[in-house]
Model the fold of this input.
Amino acid sequence: MKKLWDMFLTFARIGGLTFGGGYAMLPMLQREVVEKQGWATEEELADYYAIGQCTPGVIAVNTATFIGYRQAGIIGGIFATLGVVFPSIVIITVIAAFLTNFADLKVIQYAFEGIRVCVCVLIFNAVQKLWKKSVIDQPTMFIFLLVFLVSAGLAVGQSFYPDLFSVSPIVYVVIAGVAGVILHGGNGRKEA
Amino acid sequence: MILIRLFFEFFKAGLFAIGGGLATLPFLQEISQSTGWFTQQDLMDLIAISESTPGAIGVNAATYAGFHTFGLVGGVVATLGLIAPSVIIIILVSKVLEKFKESRLVEEIFYGLRPASTGLIAAAGFSVVLATLVNLNGLTSDPAGAFNWFGIVLALILYWAIKRWNRHPVLYIGASAVIGIGAGYLHLFG
Done:
């Protein structure tokens, strides 16, 4: 019971302090789940994100369910997930009920000029940590660069040509999985 | 009755929206059109609010739309509907993975998946950085004015501070919010 409560609280903290959705949650997960609680390793986080990308639903919820389930079975998955959505329900309900012009408030807009910059830096820092654990040799470097350049290139292209096609994350994940099998030299995963 | 429908409409969105974040948006548009529970304008407000509150955008959207439709209970039911498919599917995937944990094939697949996962996150982060710090469309007409100089300086300071102290992310977020408010009232944004 103590563990379930811990899990609810930890994920409520993560959900309540993540600004900007799925990817912005990574620095919080690294801090709370990997460094503080030891419920997952950096490698496992990368795994969960990859799976979360190609299974339905919100990535934050998928990741919470994964970690909760691995720690304490189905009940653990449910507690972690309820934890991660709890702050949203409270905050959004309060805003919807009382602060209809919340996003127009000058002070909120100003605060977010700062917060958005911070989220960029936090994601950059989080990616660096993940990079060290997942890009470990030439084949993985190749996969990383390919996915990054194509995906970022298309995103930039779309800001100039809105009609440009986009590639679903599922495509990258499937290709990378196949590439992993083909390129694997027997020195990949040590311990997960 | 409307609560059951609310649950299943958002259950559908949770089941078919793949890729997270704004992937939920087209499904919300469809719900808005087919049920009239909330308007397109509500949706625009909702995106603005989601971007300025913590939590996953899909979850925020479900709570907001549910609240509009059926008050507090509506918000809870819509959110539970949205997350139910994830919980079920992820638990099934976990069970399968556990079974094949020792499999060499699964190990090789993840060897390829991890750098791809990192690449996707890096690309998403790159888009966020560009959107925050550079106005791409103004780059040719007004090269100097297209950069968010306040943001670039703040980003460099934050990066240094994170490397130097490595504290909890929320401390840096809080400090940035305060700096943003101060800079806003001092008219430091271009």
Observations:
- Chain A is about 80% helix and 0% strand.
- The longest helix of chain A spans residues 59-98.
- Chain A touches chain B through 112 residues (CB under 8 Å).
- Residues 188-192 of chain A have pLDDT under 50 and may be disordered.
